[in-house]
Amino acid sequence: MKLSPAQKQTRALVQAAAAVCEDKKGLNTRILALDPADSGLSDFFLVTSATNERQAVAIADEIELRLKRDFGVYPNSVEGRRHGEWILLDYVDFVVHVFQSERRAFYDIERLRKSSRPLTPEEFDAELKTALKDKTRAARTKAPVKARAASAKPAARSAIKTKKPAKRAKTGKKPAKKAAPHRKTAPAKKKAARPSVNRTRRSR
After folding, report:
1. Tens digits of per-residue pLDDT, 45-82?
2. Are 22 and 121 in contact (CB under 8 A)?
3. Are strands 44-50 and 94-100 parallel, antiparallel or unpaired?
């Protein structure tokens, strides 16, 4: 059962109001989960009984006080507080009915709402806890899937990229220069001996 934030808020308010009925010794407290097709604007009726007028007024006053203090919520309208036979607190999404026992038997509001599903406060709490557990379980199962998807994305991207050829590591040594080829030097030409001048003169 998935609940929206507004539905959770409504259920929390009904839960708190039902706890007040239990604290103030309300009798035969029931929460009627109304059929959406038959309920109009309200989702729940909270019905409880009091043995006398004073107890009925005390229950209604405490519900109004606690919801105002803990949730900042005020009833849209309050009816029947003066006589205390049937006090109605209208919170729009749910309505509280505090009856004196005789009046509750006379009006038999549970019979008028045959399509509703009656729940005790304990059953109502159990439904709410189950809904919260289901939501927590669903959130936990989604988390690993998201984590797996996130980790898979970088791998996919790296696979798409083409591999670049690895660059050769540069070494600090420069390639040795080739030695220039050895050229043979031509033998030096011998100079012709010039005749001595003295010898020519003597021969004359």
Report:
1. 999 999 999 999 999 999 999 999 999 999 999 999 99
2. yes
3. parallel
The count of structural domains within the chain is 1
* Degrees to nearest 5, angle at CA 164 with 158 and 165: 140
Q: Tokens at residue 32, please?
A: 């009627």
Domain containing residue 117: 5-134
Residue 25, domain member (yes or no): yes
This prediction has a pTM of 0.64
Which CATH number characterizes residue 17's domain? Answer: 3.30.460.10
What is the rounded distance in angstroms from the CA atom of residue 201 to the CA atom of residue 204? 5
Angstrom distance (rounded) from CA 155 to CA 57: 68
Q: Which has the closest alpha carbon to 43: 69, 72, 14?
A: 14
By CB neighbour count within 10 A (0-12 exposed, 13-18 middle, 19+ buried), where does 44 fall?
buried
> Nearest 10 degrees: CA dihedral of 135, 138, 139, 140?
120
